[in-house]
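pipeline/complex-builder :: batch 7 item 3
reading input block
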Amino acid sequence: MNLLDILLMIPAAGALLTLVLPADNPGLVRKFALFVSLVVFLFSLGLAGPVAGNAGKYTFETNVPWIESPAIRYHVGVDGLSLWLVILSTFLTPICVLVSWRHIEDRVKEFHAFLLFLLFGVIGVFVALDLFLFFVFWEVSLVPMYFLIGIWGHDRRIYAAVKFFLYTMAGSALMLAAMIWIYNRAGTFDLPLLLDMLRTGQLSLTAQEGFWLFLAFFIAFAIKVPLFPLHTWLPDAHGEAPTAGSVMLASVLLKLGTYGLVRISLPLFPEAARANAGWIIALAITGIIYGALVAMVQPNMKRLVAYSSVSHLGFVVLGIFTFTQAGMDGAVYQMLNHGISTGALFILVGLLYERRHSLEIADYGGVGAVAPWLSAMFVITSLASIGLPMLNNFVGEFLVLVGAAQARFLYAVLAGTGVILSAVYMLWLVQRAFYGPAPEPVRSHVTDMNLREWALVTPLIVMMIWMGVGPQSFLPSISSGSRQVLELVLDQPQTEKPAQEVAHAR
Amino acid sequence: MPVSFVPTPQELLRFSPEILLSIVATALMLAESMLKPGSRTKLAAAAFLALAGAVALAAMAAGDPGPAFSNLLVVDGFSTFFRILVCLAGMLVVLISANYLRQENHDSGEYYALILYSIAGQCLMAASNELIMLFIGLECSSIASYVLAGYLRDDKRNNEAALKYFLLGSFASAFFLYGVAWLWGATGTTSLSEVRRLILDPSSGASQTMVAAAAGMLLVGLAFKVSAAPFQMWAPDVYQGAPAPVAAFLSVGPKAAAFAMFLRILMTAFAPMRERWEPVLWAVALATMVIGNFAALHQTNVKRLLAYSSIAHAGYVLVALTAMSDTGAAAAMFYLAAYAFMNLGAFAVVTHVAGRGERHVELADLAGLSRRSPAMAAVLSIFLLSLTGVPLTAGFFGKFYIFKAALDADLVWLAVLGLLNSAVAAYYYLRIIVMMYMHEPSAGMPELPAAAAGLRWALAASVAGTFVLGVAPSLVLDYANASAPLLR
């Protein structure tokens, strides 16, 4: 039993314990959930040191049989690819508890139990090294999110929750079929073992097999990412979820898809990945531009941020399928950036909603005059989201664009327009909501941030700046993780060239 | 070997579960007239203990496997699995029924006696090695079930259900029997292993056409009993009309036994005709899944919805049968065990929520159940998620093994279509969860009484079964894997 196993156990145990707390004491439930999530966060920080020192390999590995026949193993481990995604999830959970402190008043116990259970599921996905275990956690993370949207969401929550569930379920059905196919060929679900077998030729997939299997996994992941044109569940789910749900959904759950691409699709099906990169990149770029254009015309803030996610995640997919070191590093880094900055955007929009009880941009205006600090935080976050240098998104997007340019210059040009468009929709949002004359309801309802709200926004702002100024704290471990993947995809050792360019770029 | 009609003690021991069940069932009918009206709970207790005893005896008999009664019956791992399964399901049904019958003022020994007779028949179905014996087991189970479906004789819905079940069921039995007769005409035997030998032996002179026609008729009868398309129409009406605990029973016990019978016939006698069966089963399995799932999408009555869902689940099991392999048989066995827990559990909750006279069986009546009774809503959600096939529940591994078996047998399209079907199924199971958790209770719903002890135990056992099979499936699967090859 190592640190990682404990890290998986605490949120699961916490979720169960939350359920047995007295129902008439919501304060206690909130404090308990906050405590558990903070403990998980602190424990997860313990992963950073050992993993970063040895990021190309799996650390904290546990590998014990779960089911004998078919051979399914509880095989978990962390490497440079998953490390920061785990920490991102544990970092955001206490913030989600805090952001729901006032907002969630109904069925507080169930809410926090689901939130902790969701954490259990997503950590599991990021650390699972057995395909089957990965699938189990993948599905397990679906259920609490469904309830979070469906019970505590806005008006059209039921439609959004069911749509979310069914989309993911359809994708997972294909993924499960593909996994079983692989198992029938190889006799194992163990990912490192499968990669070994592929390398030594014990397992070889025909081109046709490889294509169909790749496609099955790809559809499952692309739905989750979501990649254009499979994104239509996302604006609904985001738009209707409660703040904490939107944050977890955007910041963590979408990353399950992109993580799956990097962890499973590319290494297992390198030929198919290379052969199909063309149209996937085309979809990614379409998504970048389409998401941005649609975001521009959204009257609803949450939906605007949701469409901006479609655009941002397009960058991640683009980076991954350039098969360059810079692109891959940028993609993984961008997963974290998007988690921080979009999470912050949803939180700030949530704070506005708690005050004014509206998500329509038209209901706002002049917030800057009545709540200057709130506006300042929003502006910083928007700038980060746009990709202003010195803030986090810049680094990721820059690396992705470098990678895209290395692959084909046209990709970089087209994707670059997404960066410009993001400035348009974000700044326009800021202008309409925070400047200009403040209508009467805004003046009477919108107040500036209180202590609790500072406590949950500050860490996010700090991270935006840290990840923008000091990417060297994160990138080396990401690079060594992604170099492993690249070697498998390109079938050749990669030279040591981790995102050095970033340092120069700044 | 000279045929002796006097059973040896060994044979009697092998069939002690059926003997015990029949004796207790008869005793219950007699005892009822001697009991004071207030002490009817003793009858339920006696039935429960008889079933528990039958489980123990079946487990004991498994230590000494072999044929009995001139090879008419056989005790092997396969029959033991199904005997224990139907008896356990019977125990859960008894627990669910006790309070229901009291509530409907119909508490009587007759009910429990019928359940026991039916289960004895199902045990025989699982253990028969010969077509006539199979038919006797089938009828024993079916006739008791017909009566049970119409048990509340003053209730119109019950009467309709019973009549429909009886007419269509007898029709199916007739088909089955006619098939047996044809097979006998073609081969001169009703023993499954003999039939297999004669089909394999080209010099036997058995007409392939005759055998195939007989097989077709057997298939019709079996498809009826497992509610497979295109013979599934009776199931929704019967499940909806029958008393809720009986519907629970019908969806699990007789169905599991019918599948046991289906498997045995398919894997022994007709295994050599694999190529002919496969396309038929393929189409039947797919049609059953599609009809069950798509029809369930629009249902507003929970019992009817669960009936269509049970048709869809029969479709999944048929996918395992289509694979016609040992892994397929094991997957079907595991699935039926998993299904027994989750479906009985779901029906148990419906029984409780329905209230006196089953007035509240519409989907809308479940609105806001999470507020009226958080525990009931939570356990029903667990069963529904398991029926959907979410990991860490029994239903997930059930589906997993079935579709794995299908892929093993190169039935790629059937597996993919089946998996997509289970995504469709998620929709209607979610609808119930949506009702319970995301809608407010409608005004004027009566307060839900606390659940009776029996029902609570049944629910606890079902939840435990659902999770145990979902986390440690090897417990059952290893046994199923070990006993599936014994079929021949």
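note: Chain B has a mean pLDDT of 86.
queue -> next item
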